[in-house]
Write a structure and sequence with these properties.
The complex is a heterodimer. In chain A, 0% of the residues lie in helices and 54% in strands. Chain A is mainly β. Chain B has strands at residues 4-6, 11-14, 19-25, 30-38, 45-50, 54-58, 61-66, 71-76, 85-93, 99-102, 106-111. The chains are: A mainly beta, B mainly beta.
């Protein structure tokens, strides 16, 4: 069974640009959540989607957004990138909300 | 007070040692408890999860939960160099808004 797949794995962007990250959950998983991981703050929850609806949102500015498609695949977008957005962005999936989550390998974003 | 506190280490032990990793949490509404292992530049992988107080064993790993003290532990017996990684505790919280809260992780090095 394939795991959570995230693309791209690595990317470099310039301040002010925007970025879109993609996530394909484990087959049969309908809940997708996104996390930002930095050395200083650790893993921080961004948002969670289930059945194309955002269920929960973390404490991040509106520049961070996401969506989920009917096939459970998800994307997150960060607009007007800042240097502090440099981080590992992790997607995780679970069969439904409240179940154990399984992470992908992450997308490494560097903002210069 | 942070919801989940975890000593960041780093922790360095000789091969074969017993390792104890710990987290404390503040809210008794937490539901279940997980430990993830994260190798450098990889996504976290689920090691163990448990719902109740007491011990749960899986090979060389034992997860322990003490709900009365709001304290969880992960023990690694006969530690191996391949156990060198960052270990994250995670606690699922259901009270108002459901969320999964992570500790900041403890970096472990097992020296051959």
């Amino acid at each position: 069974k394939a795991g959570v797949t995230q693309t791209p794995r690595y990317l470099i962007k310039t301040r002010g640009q925007q970025v879109t990250l993609s996530c394909s959950p484990i087959s049969g998983h309908r809940s997708v959540s996104w996390y930002q991981q930095t050395p200083g703050q650790g893993l921080q929850f961004l948002f969670e989607y289930f059945s194309e609806t955002q269920r929960n949102k973390g404490n991040f500015p509106g520049r961070f957004s996401g969506r989920q498609f009917s096939n459970s695949r998800s994307e997150m977008n960060v607009s007007t990138l800042e240097l502090g957005d440099s981080a590992l962005y992790l997607c995780a999936s679970s069969p439904s909300p409240g179940n154990t989550i399984y992470f992908g390998e992450g997308s490494w974003l560097t903002v210069v | 007070q942070k919801e989940v506190e975890q000593d960041p280490g780093p922790l360095s032990v000789p091969e074969g040692a017993i390792v104890s990793l710990n987290c404390t949490y503040s809210n008794s509404a937490f539901q279940y408890f997980m430990w993830y292992r994260q190798y450098s530049r990889k996504g976290p992988e689920l090691l163990m999860y448990t719902y109740s107080s007491g011990n749960k064993e899986d090979g060389r790993f034992t997860a322990q939960v003490d709900k009365s003290s709001k304290y969880i532990s992960l023990f690694i017996r006969d530690s191996q160099p391949s156990d060198s990684a960052t270990y994250l505790c995670a606690i699922y919280y259901q009270g108002g808004s459901e969320k999964l809260v992570f500790g900041k992780g403890t970096k472990l090095t097992v020296n051959p």
